[in-house]
Structures are given as structure tokens and as C-alpha cells.
Amino acid sequence: MFYPEGHIRVWLYGEPVDMRKSFDGLYALARNGLRQDPLSGSLFAFVNRRATQIKVLYFDRSGWCVWAKRLEAGRFIGDWSGVAHREMDCTGLKLLLEGIEAKRRHKRYRLLPDDARSDATRGAPAGTIAPCPAP
Fold first, then answer.
1. Residues near 37 by Cβ (< 8 Å), separated by ≥ 6?
2. In the chain, which ranges are E strands?
3. Domain locations along the chain
4. Who contacts 96 (Cβ-Cβ below 8 Å, separation ≥6)?
5. Could you read off the pLDDT of 45-66 as tens digits, one per residue?
6. Prediction pTM value
7. 57 and 43 Cβ atoms separated by less than 8 Å
């Protein structure tokens, strides 16, 4: 199993990657594409074009490690148009490995002030939570 620690920096390469690449090819992408030092101990995640495979490259004090996962069903990334090279936390990597994209397009609920309550919440106590209107 692969259990990264919570304080490790994680970098996602924001373009599809040829999964035939291994240690040297992924090192070159991290160094030149992400402009990061792969020897820093950070994790570097790379996803293929169909978003069914992911490889994570890291250096663990004694040598290079590549961790790989291939999904039998589903995708790691739903739409490549919204993906860019970025840093994420360890929780984001764990969600990505489970196939969950952590995106929030709009708030689900909001607190309404007393004077701006809609007809649906009239008569309800102050601070009532009401659904947000559709965008």
C-alpha cells in the first residue's frame, strides 16, 4: 500500500503523460515541465490521456520510487480542459487516487439574513439555512 504523510508536497502534472515513461522520463517531466526539484522529497503525480492510469514518482532518501495504479472502471480525471500543473495537498492526492475530483462549483447552502428570507423560510427561526438559487 501507498501511504504518503500529511506534510509532503504533491505536484500534479496537468497534461496527459505517456505511461511507458518510467524513472528517467518522469524525472525529466518533473524537472522541466513542473520546474521542481524531484530530489526534494515531494510527490509527483502523472496521469495518462484516458485518465485510467496514474504514476507517482518520489525520492525516498535511498533511491527513486514509482507507484502506479490502473483503474478497471472509471477515470481519475473527468475533463482535461480544467486541469493545470498545480500543487495539492496529501488529501487531494488521496481523493484523486480514489477517483474523486475535489471541485466545488457553487455553494450548496447559505445563511440568509433576517430581512432577506424568502417566502419558503418565512416564519422559520432567524438564521435559517435555505438552498442557494440555481446559477
1. 31
2. 10-12, 43-47, 53-59, 64-70, 86-88, 109-111, 129-131
3. 10-97, 106-135
4. 12, 45, 54, 76, 77, 88
5. 999 999 899 999 999 888 999 9
6. 0.69
7. yes
Query: 110's torsion region: left (phi>0), alpha (psi -120 to 50) or beta?
Result: beta
75, 51 contact by CB (below 8 A): yes
Least confident residue range of 5-14, 16-25, 98-107, 126-135: 126-135
Q: Residue 61 and residue 135: Cα distance in Å, rounded?
A: 49
C-alpha cell at 94: 488521496
Contact 36, 44 (CB under 8 A): yes
- Across the range 66-90, mean pLDDT stands at 84
Q: Residue 43: what pLDDT?
A: 93
Please, are residues 112 and 128 in contact by the beta-carbon 8 Å criterion?
A: yes
